[in-house]
TrEMBL record:
It is a multi-pass membrane protein. It is found in: Cell outer membrane. Belongs to the TonB-dependent receptor family. This is TonB-dependent receptor. GO terms for cellular component: cell outer membrane.
Length: 834
C-alpha cells in the first residue's frame, strides 16, 4: 500500500491529496515550506485537505504516521488532537503530524532499548544473536540471567546450582568462559567474556577468581532480553574482556504507557520467587521503571540442605527533550547468599568415606552412597555472600540532521565474602578455615560520535576505565592459636588498572543497502600495577605468617592496535551472508602477575593475550522461519593459569603457558510451520585444542583438548498455542543434550579423560487470560504457569572434573568428582498485569 492509500485508510473523513507544487505558498502547511524560498518546496510532498460536517471534531491517527512522512518507518501507536474548521475548508494538520511523529519516535527509541530489531541483526556484520522474554515462560522461576542466555547456541552453564544463578556457576560461549573459577579450573579460557548490564560493564578482567559471579543476575524475570556478540565483534561493541565475546543482559525498560506487573512462584525443595515491575509511562517527557525481586530455596536433590537466597533491584528514569534527545539515570543492586556444596567422587576413591577423609566407613561416591549423597554441611561448608551495585547515566543528543552523540558514565562496586572450612579432611591443617574478602571498584566513561550519510556511516569514540581490585584472604586454625586477625597464611594484594580505548569504524553500504563493508581500527592500552601489601620483601614468610603471593610488586604498560573487517551481503530478500575478522588484545588477569601464587613468576614473561578471530555464516529470516548458521575460528596466544601440588595446596604452586585454537559451528532455527505451532533448535559442534602447552616444570601437552568445553551441544523444542475460553494456552516441550568434555588434571595439566554426556527434558504449561478483570480491580490479565523440569528424572552430573586441585589429598589421576544436576522438580507461578 502506498503512502496515499495508507493515510486514506488511517484518517477518517473525505480527503484530497494534492501535490505541494500545485499549491500557492499561502495554502501550504507551514511545516512543508522551504525556509530558503517560501514559494518553492525543497522536495515533493503532499498537502492534505479535509471536509467535515461539524465545526469541532476529533482526529484519530497512529502516532507514528508523522514519523512515516519524515523517515519512512512503519506505523505504530495513536495520538488524538482537536482543532476547529469551517465546513469544506482545508485543515492544516502539520503540527498534529509533527507531534505524532515525536511520540512515535519516542516509542521507537524505548522499544529499541529492550530488544534489537530482527532487521538490524540480519544486516549486522557481527555474529550476534538475542533471546527475548518469550523464552522466559519456558524457564524455571528460579532461572537467572545465565539460564536465559543458555537458550542460544554455543552456550553452556555449569556449577553447583545450574538450575538457578545463585550458586558457584560459570558460563561458556564457544568455549570462552566467565564465572566461578572452581568450575573452569585448569582452563585457559577463563574470564574472557565481557558481561554487561544495560550496556554497563560488570566483570573484573583482573580477577583470577571469578571476575563476575552468576549471582549478580539472580532473577531472569527482571530482564527484557539477552544478546550475545560471538567473538570480539566490531570496535563499536567491544570491551576489554570481549576477546571471546560480549554477553549483554538487558533489564526491563521504561515504556510509553503505565503498567504494573507482579508475580510469585513456589516449587520443589522450598523454592520461591517473587518479582515486581512498575512502569510510569511517559509523563511530561519523563518515563521510568522500578523493578525488583527475591528468590530462595535449597540446591535441588542433595542429601543435605544447601540453602540460597538473593535480592535484586533496578531503577531507571529517562527524560526526553526536543528532537528525541534524552538523558537517563539508572541504578542496579543485588545481594546474594548461598551455602556451596562440594563435589563428590563419581566412583569410590581411596580414603573418601561418608565419615570423612581417612576415617573408616562406607565409601562416599555417587555409585555407592547414593547419587545425590554429599558431604554434610558440617564436614565441608563454604558460605558465600556476593554483593554488587551499579550507578550510571547515559546521554543521547543530535549534533545535526545526520550526526549523533552518545555518552555513558558509570560507577560499579562489587564485594564478596567467602567463609568456609574443609572439616571433611580433618582438623589438623593450619589452614583449616578460609576467610576470603575480595573487592572490585570501577569508574568509567564511554563516548561515541556517529554520522550517517547515503553510503557511509562513520562512528568514532572510546572509553576510559579505572579499576581497583583488592584480593585478600586469611587462612587459620584456632587449634594452633591462629585466627582471622592473626592468620597462619595470608594474601593481601592490591591491583589497579587504567584502561584506555579509542576506535574509528566505518560502515560502507551499497546496492540500496544490500551490501555493506565495515572496516574498523582500535587501540587499547593498559597500565597495570600489582602491590603486595602484606610482604613487600617478596618473602614466603613475614613475621611467622605464610604469604600466599610471592610477587613483590609489578607495573606493566601494554598497548596494541586492533584492526577488524566485517562484511554483510543480502543475496536476496531475507538471505544474508556475513563475515567478520578481528585481531584483539587483552591484558592478562592477576594470575599472570602471580596474584595468590606460591611460586615466583618472572614479570618479563607477562604478555598481552591475543586473539585472531574469524566469524562467518549465513542468515535467513522471514515471518515464519529464522535460520542462523555460523562458523568460528579463534587462535588465542599467551594464556596463563595455575597448577597445584598433589592436591594439598590452597593456592597454585605451578602454572601453564598456552596457545589455543577454538573452532566450531553454531546453528539456530526458529520455525512456525502453522500459526499456532513453533519449533526451535540449536546446535554447537566444536573441536578446540592446545596448539602449544608448556608447564612450569617443563612438561608439554600440545594437541590436548582444551578442558571443560563440551564437544557437542544440542537442543530441540516445540511450542503449541491454542485459544481456550478466551485465553491463550501454551505448552512447551524441550530437550537439551550436553556432550562430553575434556577433563584436565589440576596437578599435571594433562587432559586424558572426558566427562559423561547427558540430556534433560522439560515440560511447561501456561495460560494467559483477561477474565480476572472482574475479580481483581485494575487487573488487565493473569498468567498461570506450571513447569516440570528434568521430566524423565535423569541422574546426571552438570560438571565433572579430576578434583578441583584445592585441598584434596591422595588425588589419583583418574579420580573424577561431580556436581549433581537437579532431579525432577515442579514449579507453579502466577503473574498479574495491571
Amino acid at each position: 500500500m502506498n503512502l496515499n492509500l495508507r493515510l486514506k485508510t488511517l484518517l477518517i473523513g473525505r480527503t484530497a491529496l494534492l501535490p505541494c507544487q500545485s499549491l500557492s505558498p499561502e495554502k501550504m502547511a507551514p511545516a512543508y515550506r522551504n525556509p530558503a524560498d517560501p514559494g518553492q518546496m525543497s522536495k515533493p510532498c503532499y498537502k492534505l485537505n479535509f471536509s467535515w460536517k461539524a465545526r469541532r471534531f476529533s482526529l484519530v491517527t497512529f502516532g507514528i504516521a508523522g514519523y512515516l512522512l519524515s523517515s519512512g518507518l512503519s506505523l505504530a501507536n495513536t495520538v488524538t488532537a482537536q482543532t476547529e474548521s469551517t465546513e469544506n475548508s482545508p485543515l492544516n494538520i502539520g503540527e498534529v503530524l509533527k507531534a505524532a511523529g515525536a511520540i512515535g519516535s519516542k516509542a521507537t527509541a524505548l522499544k529499541r532499548l529492550s530488544t534489537i530489531p530482527i532487521e538490524e541483526l540480519a544486516n549486522s556484520t557481527q555474529s550476534q544473536l538475542q533471546v527475548g522474554k518469550d523464552q522466559l515462560t519456558f524457564l524455571s522461576p528460579l532461572a537467572g540471567g545465565l539460564q536465559l542466555a543458555e537458550k542460544l547456541p554455543g552456550v553452556y552453564v555449569s556449577g553447583s546450582n545450574p538450575t538457578g544463578s545463585v550458586g558457584d556457576n560459570a558460563i561458556m560461549i564457544n568455549g570462552f568462559s566467565v564465572g566461578s573459577y572452581s568450575n573452569t579450573s585448569a582452563t585457559p579460557n577463563f574470564n574472557s567474556i565481557a558481561v554487561t548490564f544495560d550496556g554497563i560493564p560488570m566483570n573484573n578482567p583482573l580477577s583470577g577468581d571469578g571476575g563476575w559471579y552468576s549471582a549478580e543476575i539472580p532473577i531472569a524475570d527482571l530482564l527484557s532480553s539477552t544478546n550475545i556478540v560471538y567473538g570480539p565483534g566490531n570496535p563499536d561493541a567491544r570491551w576489554q574482556a570481549s576477546i571471546g565475546g560480549t554477553l549483554n543482559f538487558i533489564p526491563v525498560q521504561p515504556s510509553m504507557k503505565p503498567s504494573v506487573k507482579i508475580s510469585g512462584s513456589v516449587g520443589s525443595y522450598g523454592a520461591q520467587t517473587e518479582t515486581f515491575d512498575a512502569e510510569t509511562g511517559l509523563r511530561d517527557g519523563w518515563t521510568g521503571v522500578l523493578a525488583g525481586g527475591y528468590t530462595s530455596g535449597n540446591v535441588p536433590g542433595l542429601q543435605y540442605g544447601y540453602p540460597y537466597r538473593a535480592y535484586a533491584f533496578f531503577a531507571k528514569a529517562i527524560k526526553f527533550f526536543d528532537g528525541n534527545d534524552r538523558i537517563s539515570f539508572g541504578a542496579y543492586g543485588e545481594n546474594a547468599y548461598y551455602l556451596d556444596n562440594s563435589t563428590v567422587p563419581v566412583t569410590p576413591v581411596a580414603g573418601y568415606t561418608t565419615n570423612g577423609y581417612g576415617v573408616p566407613g562406607p565409601p562416599l561416591s555417587e555409585a555407592t552412597s547414593g547419587f545425590y549423597s554429599t558431604m554434610t554441611p558440617e564436614q565441608s561448608y563454604f558460605y558465600y555472600r556476593d554483593n554488587s551495585a551499579i550507578f550510571f547515566t547515559k546521554q543521547h543528543m543530535a549534533l545535526s540532521r545526520t550526526g549523533q552523540f552518545d555518552n555513558q558514565i558509570w560507577f560499579r562496586d562489587s564485594w564478596r565474602v567467602h567463609f568456609g572450612s574443609g572439616n571433611y579432611y580433618g582438623n589438623s591443617s593450619p589452614d583449616q578455615i578460609e576467610y576470603y574478602y575480595p573487592n572490585d571498584t570501577t569508574v568509567g566513561d564511554r563516548v561515541k560520535v556517529s554520522f550517517l550519510s547515503p553510503h557511509n556511516d562513520v562512528a568514532f569514540g572510546g572509553y576510559i576505565i579505572h579499576r581497583n581490585y583488592h584480593s585478600a584472604w586469611d587462612l587459620y586454625n584456632p587449634l594452633y592459636g591462629t585466627s582471622e586477625s592473626v592468620p597462619n597464611t595470608k594474601n593481601n594484594v592490591d591491583m589497579s588498572q587504567l584502561n584506555e580505548y579509542v576506535y574509528v569504524q566505518d560502515r560502507l553500504h551499497f546496492l540500496q543497502g544490500a551490501f555493506s563493508v565495515t572496516p574498523g581500527i582500535a587501540y587499547a592500552a593498559y597500565q597495570t600495577t600489582l602491590a603486595n601489601l602484606f610482604s613487600p620483601t617478596g618473602s614466603p614468610l613475614a613475621n611467622g605468617v605464610t604469604n600466599d603471593t610471592l610477587a613483590q610488586g609489578w607495573y606493566t604498560n601494554f598497548g596494541g592496535v586492533e584492526p577488524s573487517l566485517g562484511v554483510n551481503w543480502r543475496v536476496i530478500n531475507g538471505v544474508h551472508i556475513y563475515g567478520n575478522v578481528a585481531y584483539t588484545n587483552e591484558n592478562p588477569n592477576g594470575e599472570a602477575y602471580g596474584d595468590y601464587y606460591e611460586i615466583y613468576i618472572n614479570p618479563n614473561n607477562i604478555q598481552l593475550t591475543r586473539n585472531l578471530d574469524f566469524e562467518g555464516g549465513i542468515r535467513y529470516h522471514s515471518h515464519a522461519l529464522l535460520i542462523n548458521l555460523n562458523y568460528y575460528h579463534d587462535q588465542v596466544d599467551n594464556q596463563v593459569y595455575g597448577l597445584y601440588a598433589q592436591g594439598t595446596n590452597f593456592a597454585p604452586t605451578g602454572y601453564e603457558s598456552a596457545n589455543s585454537l577454538y573452532q566450531g559451528v553454531n546453528l539456530q532455527i526458529h520455525w512456525t510451520p502453522i500459526y499456532n505451532l513453533m519449533v526451535y533448535a540449536t546446535a554447537n559442534v566444536q573441536h578446540s585444542y592446545y596448539t602449544s602447552l608448556q608447564t612450569s616444570n617443563n612438561q608439554s601437552f600440545s594437541g590436548n583438548l582444551i578442558p571443560s568445553i563440551p564437544l557437542h551441544l544440542f537442543s530441540l523444542g516445540v511450542t503449541y498455542y491454542h485459544i481456550v475460553l478466551g485465553g491463550l494456552a501454551k505448552a512447551n516441550l524441550d530437550d537439551r543434550y550436553i556432550g562430553p568434555a575434556g577433563m584436565a588434571n589440576p596437578i599435571s595439566g594433562a587432559v586424558t579423560l572426558k566427562t559423561n554426556p547427558y540430556n534433560v527434558v522439560n515440560l511447561s504449561l501456561s495460560y494467559k487470560t483477561p477474565d480476572v478483570r472482574g475479580l481483581i480491580p485494575f487487573a488487565r490479565y493473569a498468567t498461570f504457569r506450571i513447569g516440570l523440569f528434568n521430566l524423565l528424572n535423569r541422574n546426571y552430573n552438570v560438571n565433572e572434573s579430576i578434583g578441583s586441585g584445592e585441598i584434596e589429598p591422595g588425588l589419583p589421576s583418574n579420580a573424577v568428582f561431580g556436581y549433581q544436576g537437579a532431579p525432577r522438580t515442579v514449579f507453579g507461578s502466577l503473574a498479574l498485569k495491571f
